[in-house]
Amino acid sequence: MWDLVPRLLGDNRYLVLATADRQGRPWATPVFFAAGEEDRLFWVSAPDSRHSRNIAERPDVAITVFDSRAPIGGAEALYLEATAAPADDPAAALTMLNARLPPGKQLTGDDLAPSGPLLAYRADIRRHFVLIRGGDARFDNVTDARLRVTRPQEPRHVNDTDGDPGSTRPSTGPKELA
Asked: Within its chain, how far is the Cα of 83 from the centroid?
């Protein structure tokens, strides 16, 4: 199921970024993004936007990537747990973002702080999950659920028994509701 991760990151242009402020009040916002492989995502935002202020206070974020135009019953989604912060290398982030932007919409260094209004951000992904639709014949699930996935080459862990591919115990289906 790992093959869904790079495909969904490559096929979709927007993610939904979920942040929370210091008091725990949630905020979700759509953001145009580029992936640096499957473990790091990049975007630009105004540093004074609500989600950017939230990241400065509480860097743990949740991210969902999906195609909102998918027909009912045909949805695929990627759920990510990550830590967000300003990008270490803003120029590299711009290069990745510009590769996904159409001509005339590309960003320059002048768009970024300190001279410009934007800051390049990154999300370092800790865990990946995919949507398992209710009634999927491969699983014993009536309702939509999510399944943790890991890269096939990652070592299997003896204590991972939450239904992910590294589990040593057979799973009857996803353990978490979407």
From this structure: 10
Rounded to two decimals, the pTM is 0.84
Q: Find how far residue 30's CA is from the centre of its chain.
A: 11
Amino acid 162 reads D
Q: Is 59 exposed, middle or buried (0-12, 13-18, 19+ CB in 10 A)?
A: middle
* pLDDT at residue 162 tops 60: no
Give me the pLDDT at residue 74, please.
87
Quick one: which of 162, 170, 172 has its CA closest to 141?
172
Distance of CA 6 to the CA centre of its chain: 11
Radius of gyration of the chain (CA): 18
Amino acid at 47: P
Is the pLDDT confidence value at 31 over 60? yes
Give CA separation, 45 vs 37, 51, 52, in Å: 21, 9, 7
CA distance 94 to 98: 6
